[in-house]
Amino acid sequence: MKVTLLVVGKTTDKHIIALVDEYLSRLRHYLPTDIEVIPELRQTKALSESQQKEAEASLILSRIQPGDRVVLLDEHGVERRSIEFASWMQKKMVSGTKRLLCIVGGPYGFAPAVYDRADEKISLSQMTLSHQMIRLLFVEQVYRAMTILNGEPYHHE
Questions:
Q1: Reduced to 3 states, what is the DSSP secondary structure of residue 125?
Q2: Nearest Cα to Cα of residue 147 among 137, 155, 138, 139
Q3: How much is the pTM?
Q4: Model confidence over 27-82: pLDDT tens digits?
């Protein structure tokens, strides 16, 4: 199974970029993982919140491939402890899923069409987190899940 994190907008913080790259490097030891970036929309001040979400939705939906398991990283999704997330990942890996596509939306979230296409939603926190931080937290948690599943000493409980 391949894990792809699809995000709207690039990260400019060099510290976050370095940490994300570090965890991606570690994670690729276990399974193919990448981040795809959809460029931020231009001239968004001329768009309503709804128009912006719809424009982002068409870009997001165009990246979904047949057979993808689509998971939205959404504040209203299911929260899991790290051990539970590892178990969830293992179920996805043995289910025959070719690509687990996890999506971080734009600043206003997702349009209804994206919610309709999603297979499920997960939340990394009830707190509001920056889109830049979500990338880091997500790749770290996937890495942590892989170490849990392989019985390695990264996670302590």
A1: coil
A2: 155
A3: 0.94
A4: 999 999 999 999 888 777 778 899 999 999 999 999 999 999 999 999 999 999 99
In a domain, 155, yes or no: no
For residues 139 and 24, is the Cβ–Cβ distance under 8 A? yes
Number of domains in the chain: 1
Q: Which helix (H) or strand (E) holds 8?
A: strand 2-8
Range(s) of the domain holding residue 98: 2-149
Is 59 within 8 Å of 38 (Cβ atoms)? yes
Res 107 pLDDT > 90: no
Confidence at 157, pLDDT banded by 50, 70, 90: confident
Contact in structure between 81 and 34 (CB atoms under 8 Å) = no
Structure tokens at 30: 């276990």
CATH number at residue 36: 3.40.1280.10
